[in-house]
Specification:
single chain, globular
């Protein structure tokens, strides 16, 4: 059974570092193999020139994948990022970003996810990421 967005938001608040929580991420939707989070636009997350920083997008992608794994497993469990690769396609300025993490494989010890990051205002793809996690518990 898929968890609720409120349960997933609680996973965020209970298990992530304060600097990740400062991103303001919120869980928008969950499925058996996916999670969609919102990264709200903030000038504090922008780099010179007004575009959202790549570091904020990468942290949001990593976090969304953890929520997707937790949703698929029915609860949060300890895991660690083994690998993350991100490709940036266009800058995001003055727009929230929707981050969709889709699990491509969930095993007993490893999980793999593909993540898309889309500027909500324009609907344009801003970045893609691929992640691998070691499941520790």
């Amino acid at each position: 059974m898929t968890m609720t967005t409120a349960e997933a938001d609680k996973i965020l608040s209970d298990n992530f570092a304060p600097w990740v929580l400062a991103l303001g991420l919120s869980v928008q939707a969950l499925g058996e193999d996916r999670a969609i989070l919102r990264l709200p636009w903030s000038q504090q997350l922008a780099r010179e020139g007004g575009a959202l920083s790549g570091q904020a997008l990468m942290a949001a992608a990593d976090t969304a994948a953890v929520i997707a794994v937790s949703s698929a497993r029915g609860a949060y469990g300890p895991m660690t990022t083994v690998q993350q690769s991100t490709s940036f396609q266009r800058a995001v300025a003055d727009s929230d970003v929707l981050i969709q993490a889709v699990l491509t494989k969930l095993g007993r010890r490893m999980a793999f996810a593909d993540i898309t990051m889309t500027a909500e205002r324009t609907g344009e793809l801003a970045a893609r990421a691929g992640t691998v996690y070691a499941l520790l518990g």
